[in-house]
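Narrative of accomplishments. A recurring question from our advisory board has been how the design workflow behaves on a single, concrete structure rather than in aggregate. To address it, we present the structure tokens for one chain from the evaluation set, followed by the sequence designed for it. No filtering or post-editing was applied between the two.
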């Protein structure tokens, strides 16, 4: 069973799903104010944080299957997903539309297909060029981070909260590489879009300067869905919640009234 925490005990339920390399601590202190009005369910995805880390393929379908065991007794959920967590949120809702009322995608990565993703990252900065396009380099980076560089990370990534940086070691090279290759590159988001219930309210929150999940990908994914809403945070990268939590909470509060 996946590890989860619940904050608050009244109001509608909001589920928070972290991205690759994240855990429940990505959200916990920043979304805490919402617990005064809503019941917040924070989940560590399979292979991350305090959840099990089996030797398996970390496909989106497997992530959805495990998440269902946590959420199947809920109803009228709002799911907030960051990055890869947004992909899992969309796939979960496509499979179980009766459970989800609203979707909030923060920094959703979409590249069209595997070739588009590879092409994008090959033209990205040096770290992404190797880690995001080569499984061996990605696995080596995970091992080095977990066993060699873990104590140095807080001093290197000074623009990130300490607990978020610490949790970059709370996964295995298998859960990381498989989530990227099987979960992002090989998963068909368009198929999930086509299976979303038309009554589900869909919202996107995105950083204007996101180089990990380009804004153009979200705009492409939204084409033809005139009832979907996109709000862009100026001069912000892949982590709107970390850079401007007040804006994100304000947007989520507004969305909950829809």
């Amino acid at each position: 069973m996946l590890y989860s925490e619940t904050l608050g005990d009244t109001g509608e339920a909001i589920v928070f799903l972290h991205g690759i390399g994240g855990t429940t601590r990505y959200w916990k202190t920043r979304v805490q104010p919402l617990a005064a009005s809503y019941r917040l369910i924070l989940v560590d995805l399979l292979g991350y944080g305090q959840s099990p880390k089996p030797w398996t393929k970390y496909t989106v379908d497997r992530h959805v299957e495990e998440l269902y065991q946590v959420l199947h007794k809920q109803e009228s959920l709002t799911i907030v997903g960051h990055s890869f967590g947004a992909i899992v949120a969309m796939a979960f809702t496509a499979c179980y539309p009766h459970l989800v009322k609203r979707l909030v995608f923060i920094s959703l990565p979409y590249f069209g297909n595997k070739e588009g993703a590879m092409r994008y990252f090959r033209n990205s900065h040096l770290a992404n060029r190797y880690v995001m396009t080569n499984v061996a380099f990605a696995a080596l980076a995970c091992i080095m981070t977990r066993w060699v560089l873990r104590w140095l990370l807080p001093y290197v990534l000074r623009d990130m909260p300490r607990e978020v940086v610490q949790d970059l070691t709370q996964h295995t090279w298998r859960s990381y590489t498989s989530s990227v290759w099987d979960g992002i590159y090989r998963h068909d988001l368009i198929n999930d879009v086509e299976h979303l219930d038309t009554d589900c309210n869909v919202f996107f929150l995105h950083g204007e300067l996101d180089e990990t999940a380009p804004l153009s990908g979200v705009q492409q994914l939204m084409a033809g869905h005139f009832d979907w809403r996109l709000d862009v945070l100026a001069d912000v990268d892949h982590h709107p919640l970390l850079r401007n939590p007040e804006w994100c909470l304000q947007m989520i509060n507004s969305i909950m009234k829809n």
